[in-house]
Design brief:
- By secondary structure, the protein is an alpha+beta fold.
- It is 19% helix and 6% strand.
Length: 156
C-alpha cells in the first residue's frame, strides 16, 4: 500500500484533495482519489472525464483502458499526467474531445510538478470549475482511503 500518508495530498489549489470516483473505483491506489505517492511512477494525478476519443487515443498508444472492468466513455478516472499531456499536445484545438475535461478540485498538485501549468489545467477544466475551482470544499473530509485498494497495474 502507499508509503505516503494519504491525508497529506492537496489539489492544484493547495486545498484538501477531493474524492473523485468510487464507481468505478479510481486512483492509482484504487481508493477513489487521484492521489500520488512514491509507488506511482505514472503520476495518476489528473482527475478527468473519459471521452471515446481519449480512450481511442490511449489505446493507440498501448494503454487500452477499456480493459479495466466497468471503464467506458463518461466515467471519471485518474489519468497519468504524461498521457493526458500527450493527448493535449495531439489535440487539434481546445475543444478537441481527445483531451478529457479536468476536475481541478480532485487533481493532485503533483500534476503541476510534472510538466503542466495551472493555466493549461484551467483551459481544460470541467464547468463550473473553470471559473472557480469546483465550489467550496467546506465540510469535505480530507483523503480517507476506502477499504478497497491495491495498486493499479496499468501501463503508461
Amino acid at each position: 500500500m502507499a508509503t505516503k500518508p494519504s491525508n497529506h495530498n492537496l489539489n492544484v489549489f493547495r486545498k484538501p484533495l477531493a474524492l473523485f470516483s468510487q464507481t468505478p473505483m479510481t486512483g492509482f491506489y484504487r481508493d477513489g482519489y487521484c492521489r500520488t505517492g512514491p509507488e506511482d511512477g505514472g503520476n495518476h494525478a489528473i482527475a478527468a472525464l473519459l471521452t471515446k476519443e481519449f480512450l481511442d487515443f490511449s489505446a493507440s498508444r498501448g494503454n487500452n483502458l477499456r480493459q479495466v472492468p466497468g471503464l467506458k466513455e463518461g466515467c471519471k478516472w485518474c489519468l497519468c499526467t504524461a498521457r493526458w499531456k500527450e493527448a493535449m499536445e495531439a489535440a487539434k484545438g481546445a475543444e478537441d474531445k481527445v483531451v478529457p475535461k479536468v476536475f481541478l478540485h480532485a487533481t493532485d498538485e503533483s500534476a503541476l510538478k510534472n510538466g503542466l501549468s495551472m493555466e493549461v489545467l484551467k483551459k481544460y477544466a470541467a464547468e463550473p470549475e473553470a471559473a472557480g475551482g469546483g465550489g467550496s470544499l467546506e465540510g469535505k473530509v480530507p483523503i480517507t482511503p476506502g477499504t478497497k485498494g491495491g495498486i493499479a497495474k496499468e501501463t503508461h
